[in-house]
Design a protein that fits this description.
- With 436 residues, this protein is mainly alpha-helical.
- It contains 14 helices and no strands.
- The chain folds into 2 domains: 203 residues, MFS general substrate transporter like domains (Growth Hormone, Chain: A, Up-down Bundle); 200 residues, Growth Hormone, Chain: A.
- Helix 4 runs antiparallel to helix 5 and helix 9 runs antiparallel to helix 12.
Length: 436
């Protein structure tokens, strides 16, 4: 059945429609809020964005996914999920209005970032509760269908919200009041999502607990212990250990390159505002095209050469792209560098995912990938913080880009050496298990 046919099929259920409406409205609000947040922090015409501000924004956007994510599931399996949706949506509405008021009154400092961080952290509970609630509103035989269409529709709603944010900015202006209107508008949409959740019964979404639920403190402790065991298991599996070390190194470099790109388009290639956002969007689109090519090319390549050799080639490509297309600091060439780094990023990730999947025990995979996800985002934030100390506001730094290229070259040399070691000359591996 087609995507739209699947969607029509699952929408026939009234309880699913209520949960679906709650998701779509909330994710529309997410897109609207993030458009206002990014536009203000990165492309505000009132001020040139500094590296430290970009680093703080990355921390706000990514740390909730790293720190809160592994623990959110523990709590939503012990609280009524309808209440999780209701309370978290209402809290997000209040925080969105607060951040909008802070921007409008000119007090968008530490309190602003704290409120935004809290909003995005609460959102982890909301999204996890949506996924956990789905089996309660669709029949078992339609669950696969529902899982296929709901995240796609939610993502599309987020894009629509971001587009609505851009439209609101054109109507209300590029100044701080324009940003305040967007953030407060997102707060209204979050509150609508909270009201929609009330169309579902308090106990309608589970959890289905027999007797008294386990103590929350013990459950949280078990998650922390599980993460520790997952990290220890990775350390004991050499291919997985090398793979995660490489993904950490690459994400660190990718975080620096993202910060440099934002500064260049906001402070050097343009005067910021709409022009800066438009230029950065082009680079982002080029990077996205690179991600797609990296995902498609990796299974083809690793069917012909070893995964080790393919990782070495990708990292060498990252080095060359920075030297050839990055160091000129040209608005024409920089999207080419973004495209190449997109290929490297997704190609390396798919390859490392495969190494981890193949070389860790099945009983540990969940815990290992929780560690992986935390590392993936936390290293990116750490890179932005480190770069803030050495990258100038213009984003132009030949020394930083040269050092990044050297790091790519060093990692490439290590993987080349590993692929040629007699003990490492394994039979040629099949392509990755996944392209995501």
């Amino acid at each position: 059945m087609s995507f739209f046919g699947d969607l029509r099929e699952v929408l026939r259920g009234p309880r699913f429609r209520r949960l679906f409406g709650t998701r779509v409205v909330s994710q529309f609000a997410d897109g609207l809020y993030q458009a206002g947040l990014a536009g203000y922090v990165f492309f505000s015409p009132e001020q040139h964005t500094t590296a430290s501000e970009v680093a703080a924004a990355f921390a706000v956007l990514l740390l909730p996914f790293s720190v809160i994510g592994p623990f959110a599931g523990v709590l939503i399996d012990r609280w009524p999920r309808r209440q999780v949706l209701l309370v978290s949506a209402a809290v997000k509405a209040a925080l969105a209005v607060l951040t909008g008021a802070l921007v409008g009154s000119g007090f968008a400092g530490a309190l602003f970032f704290t409120a935004a961080l809290c909003l995005l952290s609460v959102n982890r509970f909301f999204l996890a509760a949506l996924s956990a609630a789905l089996p309660h509103v669709v029949p078992r035989e339609k669950l696969m269908m529902a899982n296929a269409v709901t995240p796609t529709c939610g993502t599309f709603a987020s894009f629509l919200g971001a587009g609505a944010g851009a439209a609101l900015r054109l109507i209300s202006g590029e100044g701080i009041m324009g940003t305040a209107v967007i953030l407060i508008g997102a707060g209204a949409a979050f509150m609508l999502s909270a009201l929609l959740s009330l169309t579902l019964g308090r106990g309608e979404l589970g959890p289905d607990l027999d007797g008294q639920p386990p103590a929350v403190r013990a459950a949280v402790h078990n998650v922390a212990v599980g993460l520790l065991h997952g990290a220890r298991h990775i350390w004991e599996r050499r291919p997985a250990r090398y793979g995660l070390a490489t993904i950490a190194g690459h994400r660190f470099l990718f975080g620096i390159s993202t910060l440099v790109t934002l500064l260049l388009y906001n402070n050097t290639f343009s005067s910021g505002g709409v022009a800066g956002l438009a230029g950065f969007s082009i680079a982002l689109g080029a990077s996205g095209a690179g991600f797609f090519l990296g995902a498609v090319a990796t299974p083809w390549a690793t069917a012909r050469i070893s995964t080790d050799a393919w990782i070495a080639i990708l990292l060498c490509l990252g080095c060359a792209a920075l030297l050839v297309f990055g160091i000129p600091f040209s608005p024409v060439l920089f999207p080419v560098a973004a495209f190449a780094l997109g290929v490297v990023s997704q190609g390396v990730k798919v390859s490392v995912d495969t190494l981890v999947q193949r070389h860790v025990d099945d009983a540990y995979r969940g815990r290992v990938f929780s560690v992986y996800d935390m590392l993936f985002n936390a290293v990116f934030v750490a890179a932005a913080g480190a770069a803030a100390a050495v990258v100038p506001p213009s984003g132009v730094s030949v020394g930083v880009v040269t050092a990044m290229a050297a790091a790519y070259a060093l990692m490439s040399a290590c993987w080349t050496a590993r692929s040629r070691l007699p003990g490492e000359n394994r039979p040629r591996e099949k392509g990755p298990l996944s392209s995501t």
